[in-house]
Amino acid sequence: MKKKTPLEPVIVHRCFVCGMKEKDVVPCNNKICNKAYHLKCLQMSEWPEGNKFICPWHNCNICSKLTIRCCVKCVSSFCPSHSEGNIRYDNILGFVCSIHDPTKISNEEPIKLRKKKIQKQ
Ligand SMILES: [Zn+2]
Ligand SMILES: [Zn+2]
Ligand SMILES: [Zn+2]
Ligand SMILES: [Zn+2]
Q1: What keywords are assigned to this protein (predicted)?
Q2: 65 close to 89: Cβ distance less than 8 angstroms
Q3: Which domain range does residue 20 map to?
Q4: Which of 82, 73, 59 has its CA nearest to residue 101?
Q5: pLDDT over threshold 80, residue 25
Q6: Are 30 and 16 in contact (CB under 8 A)?
Q7: Count of structural domains, the chain
Q8: Is residue 86 part of a domain?
Q9: How far is Cα of residue 59 from the mean position of the Cα atoms in its chain?
Q10: 27 in any annotated domain
Q11: pLDDT tens for residues 41-92?
């Protein structure tokens, strides 16, 4: 079966780190990944050649090994040997790193980067 690709509309991705929707936000090339990023948000100076950008979400923070234990809230991820104390599986959310673990965030509000609270009342 041939799959016809019609003229692709310009897809504007939302950066997973800062949440901005801009044209220079580049999606990760990993098939299971739906994340996209600004170059500057990954603290990178340029995209890898050949347009094969794979985001840091898939690699262990400590040893860079490929892993699927990736925090749903940030780009932190840990391989099985480094997951203890760093990441765990939450039944509702999925994998969460120690920063985003809801059982560890007690009364504190979740950290929101660069976003001020707008009071609407
Ligand atoms: Zn960004
Ligand atoms: Zn990715
Ligand atoms: Zn590791
Ligand atoms: Zn996290």
Answers
A1: Metal-binding, Zinc, Zinc-finger
A2: no
A3: 10-55
A4: 73
A5: yes
A6: no
A7: 2
A8: yes
A9: 11
A10: yes
A11: 998 888 888 768 899 999 999 999 999 999 999 999 999 999 999 999 999 9
